[in-house]
Amino acid sequence: MYSGHTDIAILGGGLAGGLIALTLARSRPDLDLCVVERGEAFGGNHVWSFFASDIAPRDAQLLEPLIAARWNGYDVHFPGHSRQLATPYRSITSERLDAALREALPAASLITGAHVTSASATGFTLADGTELRAGGVIDARGASLLPHMRGGWQKFAGQMLKLARPHGLERPIIMDARVDQVDGYRFVYCLPFSAHEVFVEDTYYADDPKLDAPALHGRIAAYAAANGWDIAEITRSETGVLPVIAAGDFEAFWRARDCNTAMAGARAALIHPLTSYSLPDAVRFARHIAQLPIVTGAALEKASYDWASRHWKQGKFHRMLTTMLFAAASPPDRYRILERFYRLPERLIERFYAGQNTKGDIARILCGKPPVPIGAAVRSLAGHGQPLSVLDDASGAQARR
């Protein structure tokens, strides 16, 4: 186990913390690092995916060793509309993140199976009483402390299916909403990792965070059967419940921390408000941290606050769309909003997922006949639509895509 003093301690070895560590190891070899993970492996048990257009060319090399599969396009299906898009799509896995961290950093700098009970800007304490000091601390342990935010939940169960015969998919299906619309907006997500392997995820934009994993596993099996896929083995299984943010008080959220550390990833609300998509922001923030001239605890905390505050302000439009999705559309009809969205220009869709929509994009998304009743949309934006959930049960949520 690491002992003594380190320049930067990163609490949480998931996507956000892992990418910060990899970026620092590459661009700031002068810094001593320490990464602390509660699990026995870094990254947990996850598949994270992204569009190639999400990532700036200068950052692509960082993710290259983590990529487990890649495709030149993807499909979407809705009850009234299907479309093939040409945007390249990539998936990385927790196993590759774990391997990359172990290759980039000395074994003594990587702590697993360790529960952090308290932290400050200059150190942290483990459950066994061990106290470690650092020049600065970055807390990347996942979403928590969200009672000052409102919205809904994206929840999912995913399984890697090894099939007896080829599945026939040439590219991912990012959204297949031709399924029963239960528990909010429901769609199935498919990633063909090989001719006989497909990762299938049953996903919901729901009003509450309760997840019935056995029920979702049953629906995955039913979806496979409907496609003629004979399941020989299930080689991977994961679940997640992610906050989808419609409104909130960012300053109150930031003040609610029980320590004055810097924060990263979902813990700093660095997620796409509507999709819970976190990878593009994790990459950008990691690069930002690596470029800081001073990395003391106070400097890291200020840098993370400034970055997260700007991200919050830039997310105003996406929070408005989240409000319309949850407060203006009835749960069985929420798919209509995404169905209409996927009729828009492909470059606009790329910028949307990357969180970089232009003013022209915003106007294009909002123009025309809305996919929800106009009265309901107006009431939702005025705060008089269907009640939004208080996001106070997000502890342990894992950013996925």
Question: How is this structure best described in words?
Answer:
Helix 1 (15-27) packs parallel to helix 3 and helix 1 (15-27) runs parallel beside helix 6 (279-290). Strand 14 and strand 15 form a beta hairpin. The chain has helices at 15-27, 60-63, 94-104, 213-226, 250-255, 279-290, 297-314, 316-328, 335-341, 346-353, 359-366, 374-381; strands at residues 5-11, 33-36, 47-51, 67-71, 74-78, 81-85, 89-93, 110-111, 116-120, 123-126, 131-139, 149-163, 173-176, 185-194, 197-206, 231-248, 262-263, 389-390. It has twelve helices and 18 strands. The chain has 401 residues and is α/β, with parallel strands linked by helices. The protein folds into three domains: 5-69 and 89-146 and 247-314, FAD/NAD(P)-binding domain, CATH 3.50.50.60; 149-245, Alpha-Beta Plaits (2-Layer Sandwich), CATH 3.30.70; 316-390, no CATH class.
Question: Topology of this structure?
Answer:
Layout: E1 5-11, H1 15-27, E2 33-36, E3 47-51, H2 60-63, E4 67-71, E5 74-78, E6 81-85, E7 89-93, H3 94-104, E8 110-111, E9 116-120, E10 123-126, E11 131-139, E12 149-163, E13 173-176, E14 185-194, E15 197-206, H4 213-226, E16 231-248, H5 250-255, E17 262-263, H6 279-290, H7 297-314, H8 316-328, H9 335-341, H10 346-353, H11 359-366, H12 374-381, E18 389-390
Task: Describe what is shown at a glance.
The protein has helices at 15-27, 60-63, 94-104, 213-226, 250-255, 279-290, 297-314, 316-328, 335-341, 346-353, 359-366, 374-381, and strands spanning 5-11, 33-36, 47-51, 67-71, 74-78, 81-85, 89-93, 110-111, 116-120, 123-126, 131-139, 149-163, 173-176, 185-194, 197-206, 231-248, 262-263, 389-390. It is of the alpha/beta class.
